[in-house]
Amino acid sequence: MAAETLLETHKLTKSFQGKTIIDNLNLNIKKGDVYGFLGRNGQGKTTTIRMLTGLIFPDSGEVVINGLNLRGDFKQAISQIGAIVENPVFYDYLSGYENLSLMVNLIPGIGKEKINEVLELVGLTRRAKDKVAAYSLGMKQRLGIANALLNDPQLIILDEPTNGLDPQGMIEIKEMILQLSSKKEITFFISSHLLHEVSQICNRVGILNDGKLLAEGDVSELINDSETHSLEEAFFNITSGGQH
Ligand SMILES: Nc1ncnc2c1ncn2[C@@H]1O[C@H](COP(=O)(O)OP(=O)(O)OP(=O)(O)O)[C@@H](O)[C@H]1O
């Protein structure tokens, strides 16, 4: 049976100062996907994510999350998502636990016991009482993901999650994503320009170029269809017009 769709966009379009940045984008993310949203810098990935998370409105088109239209059912639709769009910002002089505690106070219906649970899921239990000032960038990213996990989202959206991390930090984030995907059945939508990283963790990808979706599908299918041997080669073929 084909997997159910969790997140889709229909003809999503956005212009800034008369220039079309996102052009009739039709995305389809299925339940259980670790979906890589690929594109070189400046192709519109962040703009798309800002529309998916309701931070900006599209000029036209729709975002549908778990069957709920973001325009019509904003609160319910957005409650399905945990997202990190920009670098997560925390109070440096408070511990990881204390920062999450502040967040929990803002979310109705969530108890303090949830904090230890999400810290455990991102591997920060041992460092929970340390001040965030002493955290590495990778640990801050993981604390950001812990924060996104507080309301039990079905979908987590991450914008360039490994940007700026050292190799160890990258490995930790990738392992954490795979664990959350398999153990907690969380669907991931991850934007990246790092093709090798993406090919290690994603089952499906969409390729964005100049605001248009040039291809979408299983990583293995895209590689086969473009008669190449790696996601890097397939990406290059597709974005340089080799396939379309
Ligand atoms: N608020 C804005 N006003 C004007 N132009 C904008 C605005 N936001 C984004 N843009 C432009 O839209 C284009 C796409 O930007 P976007 O940040 O979405 O790209 P990206 O694929 O996420 O790239 P990067 O990885 O470099 O962030 C860029 O040319 C950018 O200058």
UniProtKB/TrEMBL annotation:
SMART domains named in the record: AAA
Superkingdom of origin organism: Bacteria
Gene3D superfamilies registered for this protein in UniProt: P-loop containing nucleotide triphosphate hydrolases
Domain called ABC transporter: residue spans: 7-235
Keyword annotations: ATP-binding, Nucleotide-binding, Transport
GO MF terms held by the record: ATP binding
InterPro entries on file: AAA+_ATPase, ABC_transporter-like_ATP-bd, ABC_transporter-like_CS, P-loop_NTPase
Pfam families the UniProt entry points to: ABC_tran (PF00005)
Homology family: Belongs to the ABC transporter superfamily.
Name the record gives this protein: ABC transporter ATP-binding protein
Organism: Oceanobacillus aidingensis
